[in-house]
Design a protein that fits this description.
elongated, about 140 residues, about 5% strand, mainly alpha, de novo design (two linked rop proteins)
Amino acid sequence: MKYVFALLAVMGVVFSSFALREHYRTEDSPCHINDVWDCGEVNHSKYAAVMGIPVAIIGIAGYLGLGIIAMRKAYGLLLTAAVLGLAFSLYLAHIEKDVLRTWCIYCVGSLGVISLMTLLAVATYFISGTRKTAS
């Protein structure tokens, strides 16, 4: 299971890296599809950084941390970290939907990855806990 989490963490790093590229891009965004889908607008908004740190860098660091935790099979810690990541990602989705009214395809991809990681972490945590108590 740890390799599934590691693969998802790599996917999350890729999505976050694309978002980081958009954060620093000065020319038009290639993923400006229409008024509803525009990665450039999202990643250049005032919500694209926390205390001066681009949200995409926070995402990269978070996914790397999740991957390391998964490889150590620390599923309780993985569950906690994934839930925190999901909460932050849902907050950002709220900003996209209700404040900016524009979505970033990379951010939505990242939301999908962290959602799946969280669901798998819940299942893995309880399955691994059940095995330990059954032994």
